[in-house]
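Re: the 59-residue chain
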Amino acid sequence: MTKIFARFVKDESGATAIEYGLIAALISVALIAGATTLGGALNNQFKNVSTHLNAAAKS
């Protein structure tokens, strides 16, 4: 019984899986934040282009 418990204590595969999960979660958060920022900037650029094209079409 003690051998099984000792082997269970030495097993680190679960800890490794948790670490990989945390890394994946942090990467996902960074990607979402970057996409949100980039999306907002692109939206503003397209609005500016649309405004200028509409002004040029009315002239």
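Residues 13-58 form the longest helix (46 residues).
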